[in-house]
Amino acid sequence: xxxxxxxxxxxxxxxxxxxxxxxxxxxxxxxxxxxxxxxxxxxxxxxxxxxxxxxxxxxxxxxxxxxxxxxxxxxxxxxxxxxxxxxxxxxxxxxxxxxxxxxxxxxxxxxxxxxxxxxxxxxxxxxxxxxxxxxxxxxxxxxxxxxxxxxxxxxxxxxxxxxxxxxxxxxxxxxxxxxxxxxxxxxxxxxxxxxxxxxxxxxxxxxxxxxxxxxxxxxxxxxxxxxxxxxxxxxxxxxxxxxxxxxxxxxxxxxxxxxxxxxxxxxxxxxxxxxxxxxxxxxxxxxxxxxxxxxxxxxxxxx
Length: 303
What we know:
Layout: H1 6-12, H2 19-32, H3 35-47, H4 53-66, H5 72-77, H6 84-97, H7 101-111, H8 117-136, H9 149-159, H10 165-176, H11 184-188, H12 196-208, H13 214-222, H14 228-240, H15 247-255, H16 260-270, H17 276-282, H18 288-302
Helix pairs in contact: 1-2, 2-4, 3-4, 4-6, 6-8, 7-8, 8-9, 8-10, 9-10, 10-12, 12-13, 12-14, 13-14, 14-16, 15-16, 16-18, 17-18
């Protein structure tokens, strides 16, 4: 029998205590218990319909994080749960921990038509992640059957027109990894959207599809006041397109500001030797992430 730290377990199992206290107890148990003892505790919480959804959702997240094969069956059952929060969390846990992407892929496609936007958003993210990993040919997926990209295309395009902004953002991300010519025009039609992060995901997807319309859109976005995450996607898109005409902009961004790491990475992808002195200067920074990005970029350029 596993032996849990008694005070923490008492807090976790006390329904009258505050949600914050119970969540902190679960978080502490996640870090204190070995996997073989944590797993049965999490599985019990996930299946405990009498527990509040927020606690079950946190247990689902933890199951996905540890990625244990015994959790797969319990997570799959959540795809049919009546609570949309749990369905969405189950999708996110499954797609980050499963070693059976080809078996899960049809379920993710079905979830794109879920009545709740949380679930549609999670399904779009899951499909994008699976397609990305499939493209990168990670070793653990190398022997898996090829994912049926064609079956995902039409429902993803429908999600691109979803009423929910987050669903549209996630659909754009996923469409970039389909490699589908048919995704180009629907994506390009959103380049004038008001939301900067949606535009950033759209132009990044177009860059993945090697559509040159992403370049002026990325350059325009970099001139706007927008969150760092949006600017980083624009810079990554410039790198993907190997846009040498943007070298001066990237070299300027490498000198100062919050986009220095992204600029260094893009310069490495473009691979133009003119970036070498700028990257060598960045190597002298006191910021470790920037030094590492500059070093990797120099390695790519210099071979």
